[in-house]
Design brief:
Length: 324
């Protein structure tokens, strides 16, 4: 399993990864993108920014890189970076299928810039597209944003095709989203092909505001799955400019940024395998990576626990964030 390479890493950022959702397309629902991204949102401008982030991440010891079919040109940008640096062979590459990017590199499209389809036909189409971009560099392929009602949890034809992919040596996983993440995770644990569990990884949203998936993620970890955490910064709501008072106070006490403290709170979970940074600038990335140096005491952890929101309210607020 490719994630064994991460476990064997000795750098202090071995359990921090980099996701390219924020820089693979010109519009996304993260706060302050108008400040974080270059004035030009051209393909070449974001390709250059992606290279800067990947170079900084690799130099800092990050070895897991996360993209998706719906993240605009993220697979393409990552493939170009890997091609330009052929000596880099020790990174683990994960991508996702199940959403199609529909904004045509525009920022003025109202509403979401992607459409979900978890059918076997969509898998076949997007698997071919991913193979064209990443070839044999793909280590992990995840179903994107599974919810309890997703047909991906019951479609036997799809399961058989994913089983074939696993037999080829690509790890099969899923990401989950929405207020019922825990139910989706538990349903996924029951999916098997030829008597063997199909999913070997699960990626979920978990942060100081939204912790409802925690018990199910612990169960997944105990079942042998690698847990990846996305949106540890709550789409920018935990960054310094927007952070609640309790987080700012703890950050001041540690001498590090609100982002580092927020990610450190996720890293301390015993089931967390890889926690993703969604940084849009190299400066943000370096600050995120300081999470590995944060040592929270019990009293600070208790104060931060007071920030938890009710899941439905959290996801409704997330759904109202504009695609900047």
């Amino acid at each position: 399993m490719p994630f064994a390479r991460l476990a064997a890493a000795t750098t202090p950022t071995a359990h921090l990864g980099l996701g390219l959702a924020a820089v693979g397309r010109p519009g996304y629902l993260t706060l302050d993108r108008e400040v974080d991204l270059p004035p030009s949102r051209s393909v070449e401008a974001l390709r250059e920014r992606t290279f800067e982030l990947l170079d900084a991440a690799y130099a800092s010891g990050v070895r897991y890189l996360d993209v998706a079919r719906s993240y605009g040109r993220s697979e393409e940008f990552l493939a170009d970076w890997l091609h330009a640096r052929p000596d880099i062979r020790d990174v683990v590459v994960g991508s996702k299928w199940g959403y199609t990017y529909t904004a045509a590199w525009r920022t003025d499209v109202e509403g979401p810039h992607e459409v979900k389809d978890h059918s076997a036909a969509a898998y076949a189409r997007q698997r071919a597209e991913t193979a064209e971009q990443l070839g044999d560099r793909l280590d992990l392929y995840q179903i994107h944003s599974v919810t309890p009602e997703s047909p991906a949890l019951t479609d036997r034809e799809l399961h058989a095709r994913l089983g074939e992919l696993a037999a080829e040596g690509v790890t099969v996983g899923l990401s989950v989203s929405g207020p019922r993440q825990a139910a989706a995770i538990r349903a996924a644990l029951d999916v098997s092909v030829d008597g063997q569990p199909l999913f070997r990884t699960v990626q979920a949203t978990y942060n100081l505001f939204e912790t409802s998936a925690g018990p199910a993620l612990a169960e997944a970890h105990d079942a042998g799955l690698t847990v990846l955490v996305k949106e540890g910064m709550a789409n920018g709501r935990l960054a310094a400019a927007h952070a609640p008072a309790a987080l700012r106070e703890v950050a001041d006490e540690t001498g590090l940024g609100c982002d580092a403290v927020a990610l450190a709170a996720v890293l301390r979970q015993p089931w967390a395998g890889v926690v993703l940074s969604g940084a849009a600038t190299p400066v943000q990335l370096v600050s995120n990576l300081h999470a590995a140096a944060v040592d929270l005491d019990d009293e600070q952890v208790t104060r931060l626990a007071g920030l938890v929101e009710e899941p439905v309210a959290y996801w409704e607020r997330r759904g109202r964030l504009p695609w900047h």
